[in-house]
Amino acid sequence: MKSYRMLIGGEWVDAASGQSFETENPFTGTAWATIPRAGTEDVDRAAQAARKAFEDPAWGQISATARGALLRRFADLLAENADRLADIETRDNGKLIAEMRGQLRYMPQWYHYFAGLADKVEGRVIPIDKPGVFNFTREEPLGVVAAITPWNSPLMLATWKLAPALAAGNTVLWKPSEFSSASALEFGRLFEESGFPPGVVNIVTGFGNEIGSHIVSHPQVDKVAFTGGDATGQSVYELAAKSIKPVTLELGGKSANIVFEDAVLDDAVKGVVSGIFAASGQTCIAGSRALVHRSIYPAFVEALVAFAKTARIGDPSRDDTQVGPITTRPQLAKVLGYIDIAKAEGATLALGGKRATEAACGDGWFVEPTIFTDVSPDMRIAQEEVFGPVLAVIPFDNDEEAIAIANGTIYGLAAGVWTQSIARALTMSQRLRAGTVWVNTYRAVSYMSPFGGFKRSGIGRESGLSAIREYLQEKSVWIDISGNVPNPFVQR
Ligand code: NDP
Q1: Are 303 and 271 in contact (CB under 8 A)?
Q2: DSSP characters for 163-209?
Q3: If you take atom 17 of ligand 1, which residue's CA is the nearest one?
Q4: 283 CA to middle of ligand 1, Å?
Q5: CB atoms within 10 A of CB 130
Q6: C-alpha of residue 130 to centroid of ligand 1, in Å
Q7: Which residues have C-beta within 8 Å of that of residue 464, sequence separation ≥ 6?
Q8: Is the pLDDT of residue 29 over 90?
Q9: What's the CA-to-centroid distance between 233 and ligand 1, angstroms?
Q10: d(CA 232, CA 238)
Q11: How much is the pLDDT for 108?
Q12: Chain-wide mean pLDDT for the chain?
């Protein structure tokens, strides 16, 4: 059994209480490593270390170009270690090795991109309306950023926060999910090796329900960047409001993949399948609702079920596996619970519908790729985030109805549109209330393109040019250059 320590102020430490917990492999269902179980005392130490590092000239006074150089060095080390980290992710959270390798090999681009941006953050000179006064702005880091991240794409979702936060000159207190802490701690080693001063990146592991609120409300924490479930996101937001902290929230969705009658059917089938069954549906952008025009509905459903049936389920560490396990035991119970709800609501089960127990699944936590058809938009399966390989197929009759159904949930993270009509593509991209709209593709993300939610899917944007602004605050500086400070008792 491997034993990990956490990173606080440049030191690798156990929890002050000495407590730890075991992390399990979702494919075998067995524990493989121990992780420190931090308490509030450890959070205090990490927050203080992050504050100290923020104020230390070794970080606070280095040039933005030097910060960029550190990020580039980190990106290079990350590239060298990508496959090793991918193996750890697969062991710890059951994601497919092929997907994890792809994600890890692509991840250095975020650090290169934000390294490049670090020294291009510029203030403005304001042509102020007061004579004899020079007014300009400075863009300054916020201070200590708390990054709270989930288990579904652990390092990628952390990267979306860490890269811009560090490029902007902040320090970080990162709490990864209790289900995916090992890779985070391995990441910490790379920050250390890259030469980041001690305390610039601190990693505190433990249980969200034990230390999460202490992190969010901590007086030394200046901003919270959170990705996770919307119930937790709401409590993070409420708590942050008490101390007027800015937040970035990325809270998942119920994204619609809309297939029009003029779509290229084979492409749309592939897009819908990859939207929901990739990562076993455990992605915030899962296209968990397929909206299909009634004129092609029977043919589409037939092709969809036939293609989904070909998915190879099993060991996530095999290159040829296409559907892996559910990452956590509670999530397995939640997904199976939603399947029961859908059946009880009267949706038609067209594929799957239970825990997968075939030989290739071993003792792992698998759910069969599941498709419900004839779903009506008001069913819970069409409204609530399942976060598993469960697709709700809903028919529609015209474009207006498709828009109404697509927009008719509390979420607004993403949407997919399958059509050959450029006019329809443009109209849909305008009228769908979602932070990302994909046309004739699905699940594409890039370090260059903003990502985030409308409505209850979140606040703020990650990736792209604007993301660095989430980690900066603007200061206005006034300098009287008239040499003539007026008598304060004389009104001008
Ligand atoms: P959470 O939202 O609970 O977890 C996200 C992160 O928040 C984890 O690091 C977690 O720590 C932490 N956390 C937990 N409680 C608190 C708290 N009170 N204050 C601050 N941080 C806290 O997600 P779950 O893992 O419980 O998943 C629940 C549901 O959320 C899923 O079923 C899925 O629907 C959705 N989800 C959505 C994601 C997305 O990308 N949008 C990602 C993950 C889940 P810890 O892991 O230790 O509890």
Answers
A1: no
A2: HHHHHTT-EEEEE--TTSHHHHHHHHHHHHHHTPPTTSEEE--S-HH
A3: 212
A4: 12
A5: 11
A6: 50
A7: 447, 448, 449, 450, 451
A8: no
A9: 8
A10: 10
A11: 98
A12: 96
Q: Which token pair is 97?
A: 């090795």
DSSP symbol at 324: -
Site residues for ligand 1, CB cut-off 6 Å = 148-152, 175, 177-179, 207-209, 212-213, 216, 227-229, 232, 235-236, 250-252, 284, 331, 334, 385, 387
| Residue 277: closest CA among 338, 322, 329, 229 | 322
pLDDT in tens, 337-351: 999 999 999 999 999
Structural domains of the chain in order of their starting residue, each with its CATH number: 2-251+457-476 (3.40.605.10), 256-439 (3.40.309.10)
Separation between Cα atoms, residue 248 and residue 70, nearest integer Å: 24
Q: Is the dihedral of CA 216, 221, 223, 227 positive or negative?
A: negative
Q: What is the mean pLDDT of residues 93-114?
A: 95
φ, ψ of residue 36 in degrees (nearest 5): -60, 140
What is the Cα–Cα distance from 433 to 414, expressed in whole angstroms?
8
Q: Which atom of ligand 1 is nearest to the CA of 213?
A: 19
Tokens of 126: 């304001």
End-to-end Cα separation, the chain, in angstroms: 75
Average of per-residue pLDDT across 145-161 = 96
Instruction: Quote the CA–CA distance of 99 and 448 in Å, as a whole number.
Output: 20
Mutate to test the pocket of ligand 1, among 177, 217, 276 (most ligand atoms within 8 A of CB): 177
Residue pair 279/96 in contact by the 8 Å Cβ criterion: yes
| Strand pairing category for 390-396 and 414-418 | unpaired
Atom 14 of ligand 1, residue of closest alpha carbon: 208
Q: Is the pLDDT of residue 492 over 70?
A: no
d(C-alpha 121, C-alpha 458), whole Å: 25
Q: 289: buried, middle or exposed (CB in 10 Å: 19+, 13-18, 0-12)? A: buried
On whether the CB atoms of residues 20 and 36 are closer than 8 A, the answer is: yes
Percent of the chain with pLDDT over 90: 94
| β-sheet bridge partners, residue 3 | 34
Residues labelled as active-site residues:
250, 284
CA distance 189 to 301: 48
As a whole number, mean pLDDT of residues 106-135 equals 97
Note whether 3 and 199 are within 8 A (CB). no
